[in-house]
Amino acid sequence: MTKPKIIVTRRWPREVEARLADEFNVTLNETDRPLGQAELREALLQADAVLPTVTDRLGADLFEGGVRAKMLGNFGVGFNHIDIAAARSAGLVVTNTPAVLTGATADLAMTLLLMCARRAGEGERELRSGGWTGWRPTHLCGAQVTGKTIGIIGMGRIGQAMAQRCHFGFGMDVVFFDRYPVADPGVPARQMATVEEVLAAADFVSLHCPGGGENHNLINRQRLACMKPSAFLINTARGDVVDEDALVEALDEGLLAGAGLDVFKAEPAVSGALTGRDDVVLLPHLGSATTETRIAMGMRVVDNLHAFFDGHRPPDAVN
Ligand code: DGY
After folding, report:
1. What is the pLDDT of residues 159-176, one digit of tens each?
2. CB 251 within 8 A of CB 282
3. Residue 51 Cα, ligand 1 centroid: separation in angstroms?
4. pTM of the prediction?
């Protein structure tokens, strides 16, 4: 039997590439250079399945006139870079990689929260630049984390994992907003009726909702104005959930104390209005970046490919 033809758009962990090479007729991207739009279109025309990531924009125009590919196996849980409706109309099944990156992403959200609160980025920059003059009682004092209130926006798997870290690890109270009732969030927690109520109650707000659609600019000027001036905003979800210009203005006006961002509107470009500030911690989209997690994500895509080419609905189909 001929093996399905698969095109992978970026470099994947070695173990997963080896499995793909064994089990499929695969074209890997050894240079790791992101494909342009014309190359993505060509991949859809040439392969039975294309395996993209968040760095590939798969808009409706790429599916126009039909394609050979029947499946998009996205390496990642978020899929707002893919026009799902257009992919479906063109006959493609789209899959993602839920669950396997929950712990790593929540760990990274906690890292950002702690770095913001304890001014860890500022301290490291000061020390490395030779500016540290020694211990003193008033040096780089940050905000206490233990016992404060965490506000979670989006109480899915990652939101719940973050709530657990905050509650069980740091004795924090948990409030949250989710569009749907969440009967058992896994920690004692209060579901609030609006995003605004969570923003007003929390000392730290952590975003865990999907990007795109109704969540585009969810955290806008009006909502930022609901936050406590001493509070911090953490975003490991998607860059477009936060209006970055409004965030910079709000920080300038002291509407909140700081922010920890792992995702940005126009990645990999990050606005100079953010990189120039000391009250933000900025990371290069590292949420799921542990070796174990990235291997698990890749293996999950391969399992979905097998299900699909064996004639089943892939377990992680999103359309
Ligand atoms: C995810 O899994 O959504 C990561 O952000 C990479 O796309």
Report:
1. 999 999 999 999 999 999
2. no
3. 13
4. 0.97
